[in-house]
Amino acid sequence: MISKEIIKKIRRIQIITSRMVTDVFCGQYQSVFKGQGMEFDEVRQYQSGDEIRSIDWNVTARMGHPFVKKFVEERELTVMVLLDISKSSCFGTVNKSKNEIAAEICSVLALSAIKNNDKVGFLAFTDRVEKFIPPRKGLPHVLRVIREALYFKPQGRGTNISGALEYLNKVINHRTVVFIISDFYDTGFEKPLKIANKRHDCIAITLTDPKEINIPNIGIVQFKDPETQRTFLVDTSNFKVRKEFRINALKKNNERKKMFYSLNVDNIDIMTDTPYHKSLFKFFKMREKRAVKR
């Protein structure tokens, strides 16, 4: 039984993200994510300007004059949201934690999809696949996805992106738009991501808290890795320590970006201290322009 508080929060996120979908992303999603091919519509008489290769020779032979096959774009898509719910996603030092922002982004993407009559699926993962919801249509289905994104209690603590991608490739056979929402604190997933991106249209959404790049000067502090549970002391008053921390963090971010670029995987960088809808909107506009150039 779902408590009234949970229902209230799900409803609040639905209202906020629905308004965002209507006001900000109206038309953007549809223009960016087109259908996966062409499907047969009808046969009609040949008209001046029609391509010769579209002539239906069987019908033409029967009728005694040219007929052509007419095709329309296959509009319906499948969207899969792969959500990292490892312990590092609980971190947040601004208004919201990474997992709260991730749940809202998940809601925006899912509502955008069903608004265009597309199917939405959901896969939550840690160091294992925690939850899989097969792609379906409809608002009740999306509300279930939002609920799981907000309140699912994982068993694992770590992050295994490779495992999530390998599972995706087993359960989803046709080409799909795949959003991977994570802080990407993992290694060794380059090959599975390369394979997945050949089969699907993979988009990485990277969530980062500002304190994961710039550690504040707060003296000697005991840190605890939420995934490994390892603890260690850091003297944050030492300028060299803070500088080295920033350099290492930026280096990892740049290496990750280069990896995404080399695999032709689009990456949306989102900081928890800035409105995420701006980054999403910028991405949609970029994909729209790229589609026009093609």
Q: In a few lines, what is going on in this structure?
A:
Helix content is 43%, strand content 23%. It has 294 residues and is of the alpha/beta class.
Count of DSSP H/I helices? 9
Distance between the termini: 50 Å
Largest sheet: 6 strands, mixed
**Which CATH-level-2 architecture of the largest domain?**
3-Layer(aba) Sandwich
Shape designation: elongated
Order of helices and strands: HHEHEEHEEHHEHEEEHEH
- CATH superfamily of the largest domain, please? von Willebrand factor, type A domain
- Residue fraction in strands: 15-25%
**CATH class category of the largest domain:** Alpha Beta
CATH topology of the largest domain: Rossmann fold
How many domains, in number, for the residues? 2
Overall radius of gyration: 23 Å
Please state the structural category.
Answer: alpha/beta
Please give a handful of descriptors for the protein shown.
9 helices, 10 strands, 294 residues, two-stranded antiparallel sheet, 2 domains, alpha/beta, Rossmann fold
Descriptive report:
By secondary structure, the protein is α/β, with parallel strands linked by helices. The chain folds into 2 domains: 4-17 and 75-206 and 267-293, von Willebrand factor, type A domain (Rossmann fold); 39-72, no CATH class. Helix content is 43%, strand content 23%. It has helices spanning 4-23, 28-32, 57-63, 98-115, 139-151, 161-171, 190-199, 239-262, 276-293; strands at 38-45, 67-73, 78-84, 119-125, 129-136, 177-182, 201-208, 220-224, 231-235, 266-271. The strands form 3 sheets. Strands 5-4-3-6-7-10 form a 6-stranded mixed β-sheet, sandwiched between helices. α1 packs across α5 (139-151), α4 packs antiparallel against α5 (139-151) and α6 (161-171) runs parallel beside α7 (190-199). The chain is elongated and about 90 Å long. The N and C termini lie far apart (50 Å).
